[in-house]
Automatic annotation (TrEMBL):
<keyword id="KW-0255">Endonuclease</keyword>
<keyword id="KW-0378">Hydrolase</keyword>
<feature type="domain" description="HNH nuclease">
    <location>
        <begin position="237"/>
        <end position="288"/>
    </location>
</feature>
<protein>
    <submittedName>
        <fullName>HNH endonuclease</fullName>
    </submittedName>
</protein>
<dbReference type="Pfam" id="PF13395">
    <property type="entry name" value="HNH_4"/>
</dbReference>
<dbReference type="InterPro" id="IPR003615">
    <property type="entry name" value="HNH_nuc"/>
</dbReference>
<dbReference type="GO" id="GO:0004519">
    <property type="term" value="F:endonuclease activity"/>
</dbReference>
<keyword id="KW-0540">Nuclease</keyword>
Length: 368
């Protein structure tokens, strides 16, 4: 079976041994500086959180498990900013009488320029989803605006903390790009969940403590879901379309579906970004039992085959639901997830109360 990105993955696997990963001491030093960045950095807007999330996502999706540098363009990063802030450009409302729906303010001064640019773009193209927007010729102008802001602001200031500039994450690499320094992409992949959790938690806190948002959010507790998760409407679209595509059987146990959950095959807790190619339909009981674990080998084999045979259809579902839909990226995220579990001695879910170790044979499935 010819899986997406197979030739590129084989080439990267061959090259991985050429640049050794960072030492344990270097990894601990990286974590210490990440902690200092959050503790000692100046966060006047939410851009720095978005930048950290974007760098971590891209390290997982296009990086490798070695110590090599990773070059990323400003436009690649800007595209992630648009995807992160797209939903934020719609009014948030709690439905409570003591609050008033509105677009959340994400800067201590004027509204964040990235959010303003997205709001203006959406006003000129009403009803469009972010994935549809990315296929439009007019999207290039929006991307240029956002890339300019990203370059001038968070890329310039993220590494300023404790009164000094410490370029431990990246250097500017020519015009319109940065280079993650040796070992940084590895560490972002290795500590991805921690970087995500810290960034998202601080992002939510930043919005909650901005007094101009108090009349919008009140004491709402679901702000994180609004900021970072797919909407219920999008998930309903995914569920309905997956029934048409895959039929009325649970992806895991094969039993007939009456009620069904839309499940993240690679758990959302591991990789908190909604990807159409990562969704499957499951019995609620199977979904609860699998929970935050990876699927065992029979499930992985089935999922990989589905990536090949139904990739176009899954992309269409993503377009309808307004979420990312890229089979190659989904494949690379799964490789990273299973490799991380293998290194940590993790176990994969087979069925209720049944698990098995994630062995090297799991990783071999991605290269056959």
């Amino acid at each position: 079976m010819d899986h997406p990105g197979k030739s590129r993955l084989l080439e990267q696997a061959r090259l991985n041994s050429t640049v050794p990963p960072p030492t344990a001491e270097a990894q601990l030093a990286f974590l210490a500086k990440i902690q200092r960045l959050f503790a000692e950095g100046d966060f006047t807007a939410t851009y720095k959180f978005a930048l950290l999330i974007s760098l971590a996502d891209l390290a997982v999706e296009v990086g490798t498990d070695d110590g090599a540098e990773l070059t990323l363009t400003n436009r690649e990063i800007a595209d992630r900013f648009v995807q992160l802030y797209w939903r934020h450009s719609t009014p948030y409302g709690t439905g409570r009488a003591d609050t008033q729906p509105g677009v959340l303010v994400q800067n201590l001064g004027d509204q964040a320029a990235v959010l303003t640019a997205i709001c203006e773009y959406r006003a000129s193209t009403p009803g469009i989803t972010v994935q549809q927007a990315r296929t439009e010729p007019s999207y290039a102008a929006l991307l240029s605006k956002v890339a300019t802001v990203v370059s001038a602001q968070p890329l310039n200031y993220l590494q300023n903390f404790g009164g000094v500039t410490d370029t431990f994450l990246y250097e500017r690499s020519g015009r319109g790009a940065i280079a993650l320094k040796p070992g940084v992409a590895y560490c972002l992949r290795r500590f991805y969940t921690l970087v995500q959790q810290l960034s998202r938690t601080h992002w939510v806190d930043h919005i909650k403590t901005n007094r101009r948002n108090h009349t919008i959010i009140g004491d709402a507790g679901d702000l994180e879901d609004f900021l970072f998760s797919a909407s219920r409407q999008s998930l309903a679209i995914v569920g309905a379309e997956l029934r048409k595509l895959d039929g009325h059987r649970c992806f895991y146990c094969g039993g007939n579906l009456t009620g069904a959950d839309v499940d993240h095959f690679v758990p959302f807790s591991l990789y908190p970004r909604d990807q159409a190619h990562n969704f499957v339909l499951a019995h609620p009981a199977c979904n609860r039992s699998k929970s935050d674990t990876l699927g065992a080998k029979p499930h992985l084999e089935k999922w990989l085959e589905r990536l090949v045979t139904k990739s176009d259809e899954l992309s269409e579902i993503g377009a309808l639901a307004g979420m990312a839909s890229d089979g190659v990226t989904a494949n690379r995220v799964a490789i990273w997830g299973y490799a991380t579990a293998h290194t940590a001695g993790g176990r994969a879910w087979l069925s209720a109360t049944s698990y098995e170790p994630v062995t090297q044979s799991y990783l071999a499935l991605f290269y056959t």
